[in-house]
Amino acid sequence: MVTRVVEVSRSPFAIVVPVPIESVLVTAGFWRRWLGETLRSALFHQHRMLEESDRINRFRWVSGRAREPPSHSLAPFDDSDVYKWLEACGYFLARSNDAEVRGIVECVIDEIVSAQEPDGYLFTAHHRQPSKRWRNLTFDHELYCAGHLIQAAIALHRSVGEDRLFSASLKLADLITRTFGPEGMAGVCGHPEIEMALIELYRETGVERYLREAAFFVDERGKGRLKPDPEDRLNSTLYQLLGGPEYFVDHAPVREFSEITGHAVRALYLNCGVTDLYLETGEEALMAAMERVWRNFVERKMYVTGAAGSRYISESFGTDYELPNERAYAETCAGVANFMWNWRMLLATGEARFADIMELALYNAILPGISLDGSRYFYMNPLESSGGYSREPWFRCACCPPNVARLLASLPGYLYGVSDRGVWIHLYCSSSASLVLDDAEVKITQETDYPWNGSVKVLVEPEQPSTFSLFLRIPGWSVGSRVKIDGRMLAPRGPYYLEVRRRWHSPSVVKITLPVKPRLVASHPYVRDNLSKATIRRGPLIYCLESIDNPVDPREIVLARRATMVARWKRDLLGGVVALELGAYALDTGVLSPRLYIDLEKYPHARRRIRALAIPYYAWANRGPSKMVIWVPVADFFTSGGNRRRLGLKESHRDASL
Ligand code: FUB
Ligand code: ZN
């Protein structure tokens, strides 16, 4: 029954082990279109952009295959965009024999391997300039690009047995291990990435020097290795302007970290590498540091969408509770990095709180980064817009489009896990998985309309009757969850993995109900942008109000604590979404204009009733530029029932769902 299951290496300190991507098939529902036609057209679109922007030409130029040098001036890390795109293609090909995708992948690999220098060096910005090699680790991204090459090569090696890029990546990894280390050069990359890539290469090959090299790079951090040469005035000034060692996450040894700081993608990628190192070594000090950093991040610095990085300048984390909405940086790559780090924390602990953050980031920090048709992208993901902000087909700094593509393409690999005790369901999605346990083979099928609806039917089909556990994730957001098995009803509370242990016969059915009633969510009062406001959450989705759907500018809309929220399936809206019809109020801004300030006693009461419409945040800005808010003022935020009447809020307080 189980077909083509490739063995995945078991990290010795993992509680949960990933399953091979090709053993999981997304069969229907929400993700089917995203992972099918949208992703496929995104891959072709991005390939075109990589060509038009000269990123592939750069490999042609250094290998001597192109006569003309690339006309676009590029950033040193642009090779990584090609590699991330290849990685996405690798995951895509794991489940589809798409000859056209395979064809362009082969051509691009050809250009890359032809550009590699004889000793393994591969970085087009410094090609054949040995004096520049490894000189400016702070800014040059050589090791960062190497990391992305390694990850792409592993993805293609695993999915289609690709060998040429894989050999090139081994050659480069060997050059790196010969160059850096206790007996070689001391140093770290200004942008973490190589750490997790080398550990994955160790998992793929079993070659321990790759693990040792990753450990070396983790240990070297925080020793001040990244200070630019003081003679180099330009880079020294840039280094200071960006925030010095903190920006590069080089401010302290990793084991002493207590909060999340610096450039968001750098910090989160480093955490991925550190958690990977824990998964292989079990060093408690690493995990303790990651736990401290995670708490600081989730309790004080993460957006309600799961996005990361609040400082527009330097793309970095701010201080505790510094979470502006319109000026949010919230780079799509940082959403991807957040997902990737929490995945590793989940593997290390088996705790559902990490899967909750993965899910939050997936729907609300990563998915907004790509348009419904896959051809437009957000780099920054503001939580409010006064208009004029729209997705772009590409960017000069184009890290985000291929990053969102590789995450979507790899999504099937994140839905399930296995452990000594059994099978884990991390994310709900119509899918089927053929899984191999120590002494059983089992097929799991999920049928669901999630996230629109919280009912999930799980079919468990062991090849022969066997005893194992089924771990079901009960999300922290769900209130009143029910799990029905063998006529028995359980009422678990999340965040939690409910372990159902029994002897399974084929087929057995488990029914999960996670109520997705819309709820208003408030934030800590120190997040000053959100004071006396609420956002709407329905299941894993955060909602927003966009001007195109509303009778007034969404910034003039006010809710009441118990506003009616009626969920309606709208098949023709934004590819099909559950929208929320809200009983709301409009501010009479005419009284204010043209004044900026007004005596509070003259400030208009929000008494004009309107019907507002909220849509899932991921889908905003798909109908042209618009104004948008996630956080909406709540008129009776600080008052209780009695006062509500005095405020004139007579809404019929009915929560409604599908
Ligand atoms: O430095 C490489 C990438 O460019 C980073 O990950 C992004 O934040 C962008 O700055
Ligand atoms: Zn990016």
The portion of residues assigned to helices is 25-40%
Specify the number of helices: 16
> How widely separated are the two ends?
37 Å
Structural class: alpha+beta
Form type: globular
Bound heterogens, unique: beta-L-arabinofuranose, zinc ion
Mean pLDDT: 94
Tell me the fraction of residues in β-strands, as a range: 15-25%
Low-confidence stretches: 1-7, 647-658
Major β-sheet, in short?
A: 10 strands, antiparallel
Question: Rounded to an integer, what's the Rg over CA atoms?
Answer: 25 Å
The tally of beta strands, per DSSP, is: 22
Task: Give structural notes.
The strands form 3 sheets. Strands 3, 14, 15, 16, 17, 18, 19, 20, 21 and 22 form a 10-stranded antiparallel beta sheet that branches. A 7-stranded antiparallel beta sheet has the order 2-6-7-8-13-10-11. A 5-stranded mixed beta sheet has the order 1-4-5-9-12. It is globular and about 75 Å long. Helices cover 34% and strands 18% of the residues. The model is unreliable at 1-7 and 647-658 (pLDDT under 50). Helix 3 runs parallel beside helix 15 (400-410) and helix 11 packs antiparallel against helix 12 (284-301). By secondary structure, the protein is α+β, with helices and mostly antiparallel strands. A hairpin with a 2-residue loop joins strand 10 and strand 11 (488-490). It has helices at residues 30-52, 55-63, 79-93, 99-114, 137-140, 142-160, 164-179, 194-205, 208-220, 233-242, 264-281, 284-301, 332-349, 352-366, 400-410, 641-646; strands spanning 17-18, 24-26, 384-386, 416-418, 422-425, 431-437, 440-448, 455-462, 466-474, 482-485, 488-490, 496-504, 508-513, 519-521, 533-538, 541-546, 557-558, 565-570, 577-586, 608-616, 627-629, 632-633. The longest helix has 23 residues, at 30-52. The protein binds beta-L-arabinofuranose (FUB) and zinc ion. Residues 331-333, 379, 399-400, 403 line the site of zinc ion.
